[in-house]
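re: ur question from the group chat, yeah i did fold both. here u go
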Amino acid sequence: MALDFIPARFDRHKAPAIDSLINLLRSDAATGENGVLYYGWPNYTDYEAVRHRVDLALLTPENGVVFIRVVATPNERNISEASESLSQVAAWAISQMIKSPLLRLPKRQLKVPITPIVFAPGYEGLSVDGVEVVQSEKSLLSLLSTLVFNALSDPEFDEARSILEGAKALVRANRRTINDPTRQTAAVALAKLEEEIASFDQKQRRVALTILGGPHRIRGLAGSGKTVILAMKAALAHLDDPEAQILVTYYTRSLRDQLTRLITRFHRHFGEGDPDWKRIHVHHSWGRKDLSGVYREACLRSDMAPLSLSAASASARQGQNALDFACRSLIETGRVKPFYDLVLIDEGQDFPDGFYELCFYITKGQRDEKQIVWAYDELQNVFDVKVRSPEDLFGTDSDGQPRISLKRSLPNSADTNDFVLSKCYRNQRSVLVLAHATGFGVYGEPVQMLEDREHWADVGYEVRSPRMKTGDEIDVVRPELNSPTSLKAPEGYPLVQAQQCLSMDEEVEYCATEILRFIEGGLQPEDIMAIAIDDRRAQKYLSMLAEALANNGVKSNNIIADRFSEPPFTIPERVTLTTVYRAKGNEAAVVAVLGCDVVPLDTRNGRNRLFTAFSRTKGWLRITGMGESFGPLKREIDTAQKLSPHMKFKMPDLQKIETIQRDLSERDSKIQRLQAAIERIKEENGLSDEDIELVLRGKKNNGRR
C-alpha cells in the first residue's frame, strides 16, 4: 500500500520544518513506494539513561531504514550532538535487527541498510563521519534517490517493521522445556501456538504507537490485544517523559500482575532497567487500605475519607452502582484536582459513568487535550452493561457540551481516534464461535443480538445472508484471517469437550482427570484454569477440585479460598481455581468450566457469564454440568461445534430482545470494513501490498495503464 504514517508524538505543529518534511515524504514524488513513516519514533535509552530521539523514521523496501533528526538552528555543536545521538539510535537498531536470521547476511552483515540523516536547513559547515547532513528538502530527496539497495522481500520488510515497532518485546521470557516430544504432545502443540501469538500484529502496533494528544478509544474482542496495547503505551509514555504521572487502571483485581509484567517488559525492551513505579501507577478502580485504587487515592489527595464498599452501597439510590455513587460524591465536593498526565483505562465496559467522570477530573489539560485512553471489550458485558458513547460516559460540561467527544477532539492530521481491533489472538476460531453462539443464544432462545452486518464486521465476522430482517435465515462466518492462530490439537486432546454428569462429585472427578491428562501431556499446572460458574456452590466446587488434585500430587491456587487475601492469579506449579468474575481479563492454555447447568439461559447475565468463561482459553476447553438441566446448553454446544466456523440461525425480532448498541461512526465503520475487505482479498488471491497498490492506482503489473 502507499506510505503509512504513524504519529508517535503530537507536538509537531510546534516545528514547521518537521510538518513540511512529513508532507514532502508522504507525497508520491518523494517515495512513491510501500513503506511506513514515523514521527517521533523510535526512541532509545542508552546505558547511561540518556534518551536518544528520532524526529522522523522512514522504512521502505528500497531505502531500508532512514533516521532523520531536524536541527532548526544549526551550528557545529548542535550538528555534532544530533549526529552522535542519531548514531546511537542507528547502533541500537542494528543490534536489534542483527538478531533476526531473516535479516542477517553472512559475516553478521544486515540486509537492511540503516542511514542516519541530520536535516539542517542552510547549514554549510563541516560534514560528520557516519552521518549524512543535508541542507534542504531538495537535497534530502536527492539523497533518498541514491539510497537504493536490493529491495527487501515482503517477509523481510515485515520483520524489519516488527522489530522497529517493538513486537519482539512480547516473545516469551522463558521458552517451554519439552523433554520427550513423543509423550508430551500437548506441550509441543502449545509451544507452537505460543510462538504464533508472541508478537503484535501490525494494526495493534500502530494503535500502541499512535499518540494523538487527546482522548481516544480502543475496542475489540477479548483477546484482541487491548491490555497489551495499553501496557505498551504506558511504558513508552514513561520513557518519553520520566517525570509524567501515568495512571493505568483496571476492574478485575487479578489483572494487576499482568499489567505490571507487560509494562516492565516493554520498558526494558525500549529502555534500560525497570520503570519508576512512583510515576506509573497501576491502580485498581476502587482500592482499599492494602491496595491502591483510583477512587481511594483521589479521596486522599482531596483530604477526604474514602467510602467503603458497604457504606457506598448503603447510601446509593436503588439501582445505582456503589462505585458510581462514591465517585460522584467525591466529584460533588469540588475538591478533585488534576493529577495525571495520561490515564489508561482497561476493561472499560465494566466501569460506571461516575468513574469515567472522576478520571476526567484527575487528568490534566483542557477537555479535548486530556490524554484519556479507554479500552472497551466488545461482547463481554459480564455485569449487563451496554456499550456507551463517550458522551454518555464522561457526561456534560458546564457549557452544555459533552466533556469528551471523539469527533470534536480528532486532530486534523489523524484518520481516527476510535480504534477497532477485529482480530482475536487468544481464542481458537472454533472456541470463539462457540463462545459467541452461546453468548447470544442463537441455538436456543436468543437474548441479545448485534444490530446489523456492520457490527458483525466490527467484531470479525462476515454476514453471508443477503438480508437481516426478522425471520430471515442468517449465516455468519468467522474468517481465518480474524482468528489467525491455530492450535494443532494432538490425538487424545480434543479442543472442546462438554461432559454431562450425574453429580457434583462426577463433575469434579472428570475435570481433575482431564487436568492430570494435560499435565501428563507436558503442560505445567499454571497453564490450566478451572472456573466454577455456579456462584452459589463455587466455594464447594473449587475446594473439592483442589482436594482431588492434591490427592494426585498437584497443587492449586484457589483464588477465592481466602476473601481477605489477594493472591497472584497465576502461581508457578499451581493450577488456578477461580470464579468467572475473577477470571475476567486472564487466560490459560486449558480452561475447565464447572457447574454450567445452573446458568440461566434466558438472561443476558447468564449468557455473558458463559461467554466470558469460555473465552478465557487460548487452547483447550472443558465444560461440565449436572443432569437434565445441562441438556439444553450441551445441545447448543454440540450444534455450535458442528457448524463452526459458521453461525446459522433465524433472525430474532430485535424489538423483543436487548440489542447490543454499536456506537461507531459511519465514517470509521466504512474505513474498518474497507481495510478488512482489502486484507481478505490479499489473503484469498495471494497478493502483496504492492499488487493492491497497483490496482488502486489503475495500473497493471507492468506499471502501465
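okk and heres the other one u asked abt
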Amino acid sequence: MNAETQAKVVRGSINGVAVTSSTDETILECARRHAIHIPTLCELHDIDHAPGTCRVCLVEIETQGSSKTLTATACNTPMQEGLVVRTRTPKLREMQRLQVELLLADHDQDCATCIRHGNCDLQDVAQFVGLKTNRFFDPERVAKRPVDAASPALIRNMQRCIRCQRCIAICREGQGVDALIQVGSGLDTAVGLRYGLDQQHSACVTCGQCVLVCPTGALGERDEIERVLDYLYDPNIVTVVQFAPAVRVGFGEEFGLPPGTNVEGQIITALRRLGADIVLDTNWGADLVVMEEATELLHRLKAGERPTFTSCCPAWINFAERHYPDILPLLSTTKSPQQCVGIVAKTYLPAKRGIDPSRVRVVSIMPCTAKKDEVVRPQLSHDGMPEVDVVLTTREFARLLRREGLDLTTLEATTFDDPHMTEYSGAGAIFGTTGGVMEAAVRTLYHMVNGAELDTIELAQLRGFEGVRTAAVDLGQGAGVVKVAMCHGLKPTRQIVEAVRAGTVDLDFIEVMACPGGCVDGGGTLRSKKHYLQHAMKRREAIFAIDRNKNVRRSHHNTQVQDLYRDFLGAPHSDKAQALLHTHYTDRKIEMAHSVREIWQEIKMAGKVY
C-alpha cells in the first residue's frame, strides 16, 4: 500500500460523542468500537459481503464544511475527517420502521413455529424500531414463495428470507462452493440454487455455513426433535446417544456460559434426565478411526498410492462426490467417528450388554448439519438398518433441553458409566478442530512404524489457522518422511485438490475439514450474532486443553479400543474391521449433470430459450 492509499486517522462525532477512526473504517465499525448500537441485518463481521442490501443501518451525516444533512447506510459509508453522525432522530426511526415493514411484507408471520424464534435478528430489529403493526403484509405473496425440503439435512424456506444475501456471500466467497445464487428480480427476487435444482441434487454440500450467517429462519437444519422424543419415550426401544468432541466445548454458550466451557459432565446428566438408556462418546469413535485410518495409510504408502485424503467430514465427502469425483479413489475408506460408533453400538455393544440389536436406536448430537445427510447414505447401513438413526445438531439439542425444562447451568456433572465405548484419549478429543485428525493420526502412525512414541506429541506446525498448512514428519525405521497437509474451509480445499489433480504438490496425507476451524465452527453449532469465529477459536483452545490434561493422549493406548479389537474385530484393517468400519463413495456429479440436462430440455420445450 503506497502513501496515497494508506488509511488516515480522522476525528468526528457520533451522537455528539467525539470519536477517532480511520478512513478505512465504516461508520458502523466505528460505532461498534465506541459501544454505539446501530441495527443491521445484512452486514456480518466474519464474511466478505457487500453490505447495504437491508437498508436498516440508516444514519444522518453532515460532512465537514457543509451544513446539509444526508441519509446514508452506516455499513458501507466510510468515516472521514469532521464527519458528524446521528443515529437517533425521529426521521431515522420512521425510515427504519418503514424499511422493516417492507422486509416483513412477504415474510412468514408465524414466528412461533420458526426454528429461530427467540434468537432472530429480524425479530430484534423489529423490536428496535418499535414495530407494532405491518401495513403491507400480503399473505398471498408469502404463500407463493418456495420452501425446499428435498434435503435430509437442510430446509430452505424462502417464506422467511429477507434477501440479505449473506448466504450467497458465504457460499461463494467463504466456501467457494457457489451453489446459492440470486434469482428473479424486483418483488420476486429470492435466493435459489444454480440451474434450478433442489437442495438435495444441487452443488450444495450441506456444510451449513449458510445457516450460521442467515439472520432469520430462512435456512435451517431439518428438525428431528420429535423423532428423538419418540425414541426416548418408547419403552421398547433402547436409545443410545453419542455426542461429538466439539459439542462439549460449544454447548454451554446457549445457556450463558463462556465460549469454550467444557460441559461434558452436564451433557451426560442432561441426556440421562431426558431418558437416554446408554450415553456414549464419539471421542471413543475418533480413537477407533485413528487406528483404522493410520493402518490404511501405511498400506497405501507401501503400495505407492498417494496422497490419501481423510474421510471423517461428511460435507467434504459430498464436495468430493459432487465437484471432484475423479479423486474419490484417493479418499480414505474409513468411516467417520459417528458412523463407527453407530455400527459398533448395533453389533458389539448389544452382545456385551445382552440387548436385542433390533431394539437399539442410535442418536447423535453433532455440531454439523452434514451429519444428517451422512446417516441416510445407503452404504452406511447394516442388515437393512441405518448405522445411526438420527442426528440432532447442537442447536436442536439446546431446543430439546429447553422444551423438557432442563437448564444446563443447574445440572451437576456426572461421568460416563459404560465400560465399552466411552474412554477416549487426548488424540480423540482434538478431532473436533482443524489439524486435530492429522495430529492424532501422526501420533499413532509413528508408534505403528517404530513401536515407540513420538517425542513431540504436540505438533505446532499443524496447529495454525491458515487455510492450508503443511508439515513433514520423520517416521524413521525406513518409513522416511511423511508429508502432510491440513485444509479447513472448502475454498482452500478446492485449491489443494486442484493442485493434487495437476500434480504440482508432493503430499502423502491430507486432512480436510469443510468448516473454518473444523467442527468447532460446524454448520450445526450455536450462533452468535457477531464474531462467531472468535467463539470457535475459544472452543478450539478448550479442546487442546482437554488433550493436554488427559493421562492418555494417543489413540493406540485407549484400553476400550484395545478390548474391541481383542474381543470383536481382531486387528485394525482385519476383514471384519473392513466390513464394519470402512465404506465406499459414489460419483454424484453425473447425477447432477443429468438433472441439469433435464431442466434445460424442459426450458427449451417451453419455448423459453432466447
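fwiw on the second one: Residues 606-610 have pLDDT under 50 and may be disordered. The first strand starts at residue 9 and ends at 14. idk if thats what u expected
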